[in-house]
Known about the structure:
The chain contains 7 helices and 6 strands; from the N terminus they run βααβαβαβααββα. By secondary structure, the chain is an alpha/beta fold. It has a 6-stranded parallel β-sheet, with helices on both faces. The longest helix has 24 residues, at 81-104. It is globular, with a radius of gyration of 18 Å. It binds 3-methylbut-3-enyl trihydrogen diphosphate (2 copies) and magnesium ion. It comes from Piscibacillus salipiscarius.
Amino acid sequence: xxxxxxxxxxxxxxxxxxxxxxxxxxxxxxxxxxxxxxxxxxxxxxxxxxxxxxxxxxxxxxxxxxxxxxxxxxxxxxxxxxxxxxxxxxxxxxxxxxxxxxxxxxxxxxxxxxxxxxxxxxxxxxxxxxxxxxxxxxxxxxxxxxxxxxxxxxxxxxxxxxxxxxxxxxxxxxxxxxxxxxxxxxxxxxxxxxxxxxxxxxxxxxxxxxxxxxxxxxxxxxxxxxxxxxxxxxxxxxxxxxxxxxxx
Length: 248
Ligand code: IPE
Ligand code: IPE
Ligand code: MG
């Protein structure tokens, strides 16, 4: 299988020289997609993996620097254990299937979130792919797994306090850049664009610090229905926005 979409870009509408560097996606609506078809929720999660492949393909074609995909939040543990277990197996299914293509396309796999809280089998699959792709220089495919933005900020604050206490850091040195450097995303530019599927218009504890100046794009499409064209539409919309960053 090749990571080429064969889906032509609509160059009249999408300017490939003006794409966001980092797109953060809240992949929502798998359960509703399944329900609409009388299927169990896990069928929606499985179908959603196909969308991940499509979005990664497009991100590679568009030369994006990074995409961060919200795969499991710290709040998602509230779900029934059977569903959690199913979701936790998806990273290994995705990576076992697509790792060769990811490598071929120079994609680097990374993760953010409470890694230690993941089941062993999830950690193993993720660790292997992270290791195998660590020298790749193309798209960063970043999975937010067991991720919660507030707990990320709490961890950063604790580390900063500890470093001040140990005299490794002076409190005068604490500034926005330093705080960014203590977050899981310290190797990535802040997201320029946040996409959320399924019609919900909230962040659900996603990258709260990092999206301070991101553009938001909400679509009613459920995640398994999202595809290359839908991704292009989001990019086109982004290109039509006027980002001011507080200026004129
Ligand atoms: C998103 O789909 C996937 C995860 C949160 C893991 P949902 O499972 O939240 O689907 P809906 O929102 O119930 O339709
Ligand atoms: C957000 O979706 C988390 C992920 C997509 C992984 P949720 O479905 O968990 O969010 P809420 O509960 O509707 O806010
Ligand atoms: Mg949901």
